Amino acid sequence: MKATITTTAHYVPEKVLTNIEIAKLVDTSDEWIRSRTGIAQRHIVAENEATSDMCTEVAKQLLEKRDLSPNDIDIIIVGTVTPDHFTPSTAAIIQDNIGAANAWGFDLSAACSGFIFGLETGAKFIESGTYQHIMVIGADTMTSILDFTDRETCVLFGDGAGGVILEPSQSGGGILDSILHTDGSGGTSLWVPAGGSRHPATIDTINEHSHYIKQDGKRVFKFAVKGMADVTQQILKNNNLTGEKIKLFIPHQANKRIIDATAKRCGISNDKVLINIEWYGNTTAGTIPIGLSEAVEKGELIDGDFLLLASFGAGFTWGSILIKWESHL
Ligand SMILES: CC(C)(COP(=O)(O)OP(=O)(O)OC[C@H]1O[C@@H](n2cnc3c(N)ncnc32)[C@H](O)[C@@H]1OP(=O)(O)O)[C@@H](O)C(=O)NCCC(=O)NCCS
């Protein structure tokens, strides 16, 4: 039995922060950000808005679109590195907010690969035959860990959430294959040094800004291109496919130059590559499900289309998932 995506939804906060506004906070420019990253603006949460609020919006949309009762949901999996709290989990907060009385759930930490890792996890639960409806949501409030005095990170990220409902496939399509990787030796190339159990938050960690995200941009860039391209080429090869056979490629949206280089190496033409980084920036676990939800809304996928997802993120974590699309409208 295979798992298939029956429903998609996304939510981004109303408030927009443009490059021009960021250039008033740090020494940067609209031109530099656009040319080096492809980003023009990002959405940011309102005061008192957190990751579970965005996820709850997504979860409500998913239920409505699929005409399901909250009681039908078996599991809620949330990929996030910016949960509302260390505990309870974001999944538990969503479960309560939507009244999913029969669901259990958990958060999964894989940074920008959070949605891909969650999708693989959810698919295995469906394939076990035990569960019928699983919500997989990828969401991050990156502004909660951004240092708006560090121009090398604060220009890159935004806030947003997207998700899907996974169900057993009726016709043998759905999630066909996946390849996932973790290489912890890249840990400190993209990380939040303090605030966890190694260096709990103190006045010093706050003064040093070490509870904010830090990165070695050049190293991450190189690993991202190699990681996403290698894994995408491998999954195509394993399934006797070429880039030409793919209808839509949705790569993680970290930098337009990373996306372009990855697609080129994989032989996937530009018209098949979803790019929306211009409007949202890097929403970490949110980028792929937001892109997928937008593509479905625009009617870009029909029955039998090959959809390829690829991610790269902190950890390092990376992976690719191949889907034979089944329309459930
Ligand atoms: C961060 C990133 C955009 C920098 O682009 P780049 O072309 O590699 O730029 P460089 O690091 O070579 O920096 C070039 C110059 O721009 C400067 N610079 C960095 N950020 C800047 C900004 N926001 N505005 C203006 N100048 C900036 C640097 O200080 C450097 O100046 P110098 O030459 O005087 O030292 C790029 O490395 C990147 O996207 N890396 C991956 C990051 C990422 O995606 N992280 C999340 C992964 S999931």
Describe the structure.
This protein has two domains: 3-172, 3-Layer(aba) Sandwich (Peroxisomal Thiolase, Chain A, domain 1); 175-280 and 301-324, Peroxisomal Thiolase, Chain A, domain 1, CATH 3.40.47.10. The chain has a five-stranded mixed β-sheet, with helices on both faces. The two termini are 21 Å apart. Helix 3 crosses helix 4 (90-98) and helix 8 (217-238) packs parallel to helix 9 (256-265). The chain is built from eleven helices and 13 strands. 33% of the residues lie in helices and 23% in strands. The radius of gyration is 19 Å and the shape is globular. By secondary structure, the chain is an alpha/beta fold. Bound molecules: coenzyme A. Coenzyme A (COA) binds at residues 28, 32, 36-37, 112, 151-152, 155-156, 190, 215, 217-218, 220-221, 224, 254-255, 282, 312-313.
Report the sheet with the most strands, covering strand number, pairing sense and barrel closure: 5 strands, mixed
Q: Secondary-structure element sequence?
A: EEHHEHEHEHEHEEEHEHEHHHEE
Helix amount, in percent?
25-40%
Q: Strand percentage, roughly?
A: 15-25%
Number of domains: 2
Widest sheet: strand ordering: 1-7-6-4-5
User: What is the architecture of the largest domain at the second tier of CATH?
Assistant: 3-Layer(aba) Sandwich
Distance N to C terminus: 21 Å
Question: Which CATH first-tier class of the largest domain would you pick?
Answer: Alpha Beta
Name every ligand kind in the structure: coenzyme A
Radius of gyration: 19 Å
Which spans have pLDDT < 50 for at least 5 consecutive residues? none
**Any idea of the CATH topology of the largest domain?**
Peroxisomal Thiolase, Chain A, domain 1
Helix-and-strand structural type: alpha/beta
Indicate the overall shape.
Answer: globular
